[in-house]
Amino acid sequence: MKRILVVDDAELNRELLHEMLKDDYIVETASDGEEALKKLEANHKETAALLLDLRMPKRDGFDVIEQMKLNGFMKRIPVLIISGEHAVEVENRCFELGASDFIHKPFERSIVKNRVKNAIELFDCKNQLEQTVEEQAKTLEKQYRIIQMQAEKLREAHPFNKLMMEYSSAIVEVETKLKVLNAEFSQEYNRNPFESIKSRLKSPESIYEKLERKGFPVTVESIRENLTDVAGLRVICSFPDDIYRLAELFIQQDDIILLRRKDYIKNPKSNGYRSLHLILNVPIFLSSGKKYMKVEVQFRTIAMDFWASLEHKLKYKKDVDNTDEIVEQLRICAESIEALDYQMQEIRNKIDHSINSALHSDNSVRKVFY
Q: Which residues are identified as catalytic?
């Protein structure tokens, strides 16, 4: 049977609670806070619950709770206050200090038994859950150390470094092609199809983790065959139609091979994520000849990129409160952002139309004049 400690300066109350609980628990008693703390020091690991009076000589119930918090006992021992107090302020103070429940005097057997039972069961569940989380955290830490060790081996391997150089070269090729298109648009149409380009190479840790998670061997050839996002670029455009125009012009180039297209703008993810993803085979030119490398290119508007950055922070932060509420707010924001993107695009179209009409009118006047 589990052990509980009843603390009350009134002997009658101690005897009553002992009688009510003795069939289900080993019941120890203490007549004041000082005696209670000594017994907790000696048997805190075996104590399943503490029934604690507030008004006692030497050290009262509030002192006992404060000392238990300092000793770390409150984390694993539920405290049920036994008191004749009915003031809301007193109960609130007890709950703020970490008490699990309140049992009012005079005692009712069924209420006492049920409240003690519920408090112990809840704490057992909480402690088991914390233990499980702690074990999982240790397992994740161990896995992370293994990933770091394997990633370090990858870094030291010449074939891996050569492969990373090839992916870096593919990024340069894509950036160059996009910048050429940007320069052409700037010259011909007096506007740029994109605002900026961001690029990244997947880290050795991320590469190893993804191969392990998907059940692929951790080899250079496996990286080349099974991963499509080792080399990645993000192209930030001003308007949605610029995304599609630029993407089509890019994949129409005769040395670019489109492997896969994922349109999360026309078909957003359930959380609101929007972006156009292209998985491409891009040629690089080495001393040994031409070689194709897989590259992932993502096209987003400025607003889509801002949203994705915020959503990414939420996904990888483990201590964020109100996660469900924030996810729903992000989904609503994603819909607002889509509407704003197309409203801004419509305004731009009207401005362009106005300018073109003015230029056409001016040219007509010149022809008549001459």
A: 296
